[in-house]
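FORM 7B: Structural annotation worksheet

SECTION A. Query
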Amino acid sequence: MEIVFNPPRAEWERYFSRRSADDDTISAGVARIVERVREEGDDALYALAESVDGVKLPFIEVPPAVRAEALSRVPEQLKASLRTAADNIRRFHEAQRHADVDMETMPGVRCVQRPVPIGRVGIYVPGGTAPLVSTVLMLGIPARVAGCGEVVLCTPPARNGYVVPEIVYAASLCGIDRIFLAGGAQAVAAMAYGTMTVPPVDKIFGPGNRYVTRAKQMLSVSQVAIDMPAGPSEVMIMADDTAVPAYTAADMLSQAEHGTDSQAILLCSSRSQAEQVRQQVIRQLEDLPRREQAQGSLQRSHIIVMDDRREMVDFANGYAAEHLIICMEDPWEVAGAITCAGSIFIGNFSPESAGDYASGTNHTLPTAGWARSYSGVNLDSFMKKITIQELTPDGLASLAGTITGIARAEGLEAHARAVDVRMSGATDRDK
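SECTION B. Predicted structure
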C-alpha cells in the first residue's frame, strides 16, 4: 500500500472513486444474463449454474428433506454462535418499531401514517469463496420482525451442487420460507421477473459483487425495488496515536480478505502510525488463509496521512465509507461530525467484524460512496408507509380556498371543482 501525505483537496476525488476499468464490460454481461433469465426462466438458471458456478444443479428449490438433512451437519458450537447473534439482531431491530402517526393538522383535518410490511421479499446471500451465513440473519430477521408475508432466499450452490448447511440453519432461525440455488446476476433476475420455480418478489435485499450490484441497479429501474447499491466491501479507519497499530492492521485485513475488489483505507495523523500499521499488515498477512484475496485488495487500498483533524473529517465524509472505524482521542466528538457513513465503530475494541456478525446492527450497508444518500438496512427497509386522511365538512371548508387557489394556479380546474362542488352543497340526488 502506498502512503500519501496531506493530499490537496483537488486530488481527493482520486481516492473517492471506486469505479473500475471493466465496469462497462460488467454491465454488458449482466444485461445478457438478465435477458436470458427473463426469456428462459428455470432453464437459464440450470445452464448458468453449470457455466458460471461449474455445478450441475439437482434442483433449484431446496426440498424440505434436504433442508432437514443439512441442519444435522451444522456443528453445535456454530449453532450456538448463530443463535446469540440472532438474538442481538432481533433485539436491535425490534427496538426500531415506530408507532402510527395520527394527528389533526388543523381542526377537522385528520392525517394518519401507517407502516405496512412489504408482501414478499427476496434475500440474496453471497456464496462463492465465502458463503455469508451472517447475511441470512441480517436480512431474514428484520423481514420477520417487520411482518413481511413471505421471505425467500437465493444463494449460490456449494461445490457439490447442494446448499451450504450453515445457510439452511440460519434460515431456520429466521423463518425463511423457501431457499433457491441461484447465484450472481441470474439470482437477482429470477427474483425480479419470477420463473416457473422462483416467485417474483416485491423487493430484493442483499450484498454481492459488482455483477450482483449492477443487476440490482438495472432491474430497479422498471421491475423491482431494491434495498440499496451494496457491492464490494470497504472500510475506512480514522486513527491517531491512541490507536493500536496491530488492531488497525487486523481491521484492514478483515475487509481485504473479502475479495480483490474490496478496499481498505487508513486515514491517520502521523508518519509513524502509517509505517507501524503497514508493517503490521505485512506481518499479519503472512499466514492469512485468504492471503491471495487480501493482497489483491491491498493493491487498491491506501494509507493517507493528514495532520489536520478537521481535514480528516472532511475527507471521511467525502469518501462516505461503508464501514468507518474511529480510533482517535474524543472519538464520539469525531463521530458527531460524520454525516456520510454506513456504520461507525468507536474505539480500539469495536472491530468492524462485531457489526458484521453479532453486535446487533445490520451489516447490509451502502458502498461505493452511496452512504452520502442511503442508510444501511433497517426495519423501515422492509416497510412501506401508507398515509390516510379524513376531512369533516368544516375541515374541508377551512381549506377550500387554499386548495382551489393552488389548483387553479397550476391550471388544474377539475381539482378545484372537486372542492367547489362540495362547498356548493350540490349532490347527485339534488340534480
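SECTION C. Observations
The first strand starts at residue 2 and ends at 5. The chain has 17 helices and 14 strands.

SECTION D. Sign-off
Analyst initials: ____
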